[in-house]
Amino acid sequence: MQLTIDLPNLWASEKKTAELINRIEQIFLKENVSFEIKTALPTEADSWDMLDIEEISVDTDIKDFAQNHDH
Predict the structure, then answer these.
(1) CB of 54 closer than 8 Å to CB of 38
(2) Quick check: helix, strand or coil at residue 36?
(3) Residue 17: exposure state from Cβ atoms within 10 A (0-12, 13-18, ≥19)
């Protein structure tokens, strides 16, 4: 059996990621599950990370667009 967990860069620091990996390791050790942890950087940039919202935004002059979203 192989378990793959892709962790996007959601946290500001790598400390939280390391803590999460440590907890996973402890669970596997407790359950006597054989495991190997590999780390890898993404091979290519994610298009969503390169999206510049300021560049594509449109000024509608609507002060509270959320209040009128269904009209």
Answers:
(1) no
(2) coil
(3) middle
Angle at 16 (CA atoms; ends 45, 20), nearest 5 degrees: 95
- pLDDT at 43 (0 to 100): 67
The predicted model scores a pTM of 0.43
- 14/51 Cα distance (integer angstroms): 23
Provide the CA 3 distance to its chain's centre, in angstroms.
Answer: 18
Rounded Cα–Cα distance for residues 26 and 29 (Å): 5
pLDDT tens, residue by residue, 11-65? 556 787 788 888 988 998 998 888 877 766 666 777 777 888 888 888 888 777 6
Rg (CA), the chain: 21
